[in-house]
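Reply to dn_fold:

You asked what the input looked like. This is it:
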Amino acid sequence: MLLHRLQRALRRLPALLILSLMMLVLLQRSVVPVGQVWAAAAIIVREHQFDYVGWTFGALGAKLDAALFGLHPFMDEAARTAYVRAYMADLARAQALDARINAAFSDPASRDPLAATAGLRAERDALRADLQARQTLVESILEGQVSAVLTEQGFGLLGQVLPPVSMRFTQVPNLLVVSPRDEIRFDVSINLDPLPVDQIAALEAEIEGALGVSALIVPLGGIALYPAMILETPSIPWAADVFAHEWLHHYLFAFPLGLAYFSGEGFASETRAINETTASVFGGEMGRLVLARYYPDLVPPEPSPPDPDAPPPPPPAFDFGAEMDRTRRRVDELLAAGQVEEAEAYMEQRRQDFYASGYPIRRLNQAWFAFYGGYQAGSGGTPGAGGADPIGPAVEAIRADSPSLRDWIVTMRGITTRDELLAVRDALAGQSVLQLP
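and this is what came back:
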């Protein structure tokens, strides 16, 4: 048995190494566009840049160990599901302990928070050590569950999903996004070590003051290295969604949409929005399928069909998507007219409006729209961030006119520009009209 597992691991190792190295090289290319703005920004944040190489080789070591010595193949499906549930419950408990400890250190009335939290910290540290020992097995179980559903959906080849689903829970880096001030454009992105908010604000101000740009440092939910980096979470639905989302990035890497995205130019163009929006829609749909098979009690309920006799529901007091769409369109108008300072003042006023309505956006600027405008639909989308950009609706329209999830991805994987996307949308819509009785 051990020899068989060793042979299987050694067969996978070259592919793992090749994919990892290619992702490292091309991710560096995608986040390091050659130019004066990137070089200047990189100098400012040089002490905080994330170590991709060290992280990747550490993750590969954990995956090889799981392939050789992991318990996953010896567990039945009920035991695997129970193991994941127990791990996530303990992780939620560890995060709750962290929150209590942080609250004690923030409380002005706490004279000696170190002593007051001694018991909590001991409990937290013991629980964290236990979680660390169990993490790789939980990842293997979730990878297997997502792989099984991908195979059911037609993405398998001789029973194997390519590339293999490979994810690693971790503390995900932050992302520095830089846009020009006179238009919304994703010019620069650099991954940084996780930072406290005071350092984030200071770096943003330094970059904007030195370079005359719009800057934003944002948290990420995952990064499509290989293995992919996944933000630690106690939520099984969120994990299933993001595992599928990041796997699709790996899959698309072999096709025009992925290759164009990971090129220097593609990262800052509409290709990024097409790729990320497709991954968001795919992750939401696949995540629900994984839940339906393995965690059916966690599947969100389907919305009830509207009652034609019922009065229409009252409009929400504050519709985030509609308000953000209105904001983006107005900002685009002001920037197109050359009114940069007016656009920035307007965005700050709108940020305060969002905050007062229960949406605590820390910064709303050109870089915010450059980043979040790339996620225009699906479970990870930001409603309204794309404004008048038709990419999000077009991606969803193509999915609606595709007979299966795989057929949709086969269509999407060859599309790299907005014009191509809209042409495919219109062609599929025309076919649907012709097929109506």
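The CA atoms of residues 303 and 309 lie 17 Å apart.
Hope that clears it up.
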